[in-house]
Every structure is written in structure tokens, then in C-alpha cells.
Amino acid sequence: xxxxxxxxxxxxxxxxxxxxxxxxxxxxxxxxxxxxxxxxxxxxxxxxxxxxxxxxxxxxxxxxxxxxxxxxxxxxxxxxxxxxxxxxxxxxxxxxxxxxxxxxxxxxxxxxxxxxxxxxxxxxxxxxxxxxxxxxxxxxxxxxxxxxx
Length: 149
Known about the structure:
Strand order of the largest sheet: 3-2-1-4-5-6
Order of helices and strands: EHEEHEHEEHH
Mean pLDDT: 88
Radius of gyration: 15 Å
């Protein structure tokens, strides 16, 4: 059975995941480095990991399996989850795939280099209502596709 893993520390779509996962009756793991309020539900399990670097990512990768869904904007985590045959969705509604992850990793490295050298400043664009809507659409479509398979 499909499960959902949320890389929760900076995830802007947790509430949306709770609603959609609840409709589909899917177990959802909310993985973070610190405690956060989650709905009281037998379908939602909060996992608080140590403060170690990438501890939440490591927990997700150790527990995810084929046909699970990972919600993250962390490109290295997305890459690792794809290697475990999970489906990976970004909170802006972008699906990471085996075909797209290489370019995402390369762009991340390039942007890191450009920030370090002062060529660019700032980070990601602000999260928008359009991003939220796109995310809800791709999450619902992904879960319905998994159910049909």
C-alpha cells in the first residue's frame, strides 16, 4: 500500500497533504528535526529525528519503498528517494523523475556556485497560490494513478 512521506521542516503544503491523504486513507509520515503540530489522526505519524545534518532525509530514505510518495523540495533527497523507486513531488507541483533529476542536481550545484561567487544573490521565488494549486493537482493525479495500477 502506498504511503506518503513529508520532508516537513520547511514544507508549505503539509495541510494539503493531510487532506488529500485522508481522503485516500493513506498513512502519512511527517518527518522533521523538531516537534510540530500535526492533526490527531491514526493515519498521520510524526517522526522527530535527531538534529544531525540530513537526519530527516536519511530516515525517509531508510523507510521509503517502491510506490510510496515523497514530498520534498530537497533535490538530493529527491534523487535518493527516486533511487528507491519512490515517486517524488515538489511542493510547487513539480514531479521529480529519473529523467529530470540529473538536470535538477546540476542546476542546484550551478546556483550554489553562483551564489558563492557573488554572481547571484537570493534563493527561491516566493511560494504562490498557483504553486499550491499545481501541487494539489499533481498529488491527486499521482495518487489516483497509483490506485489504478
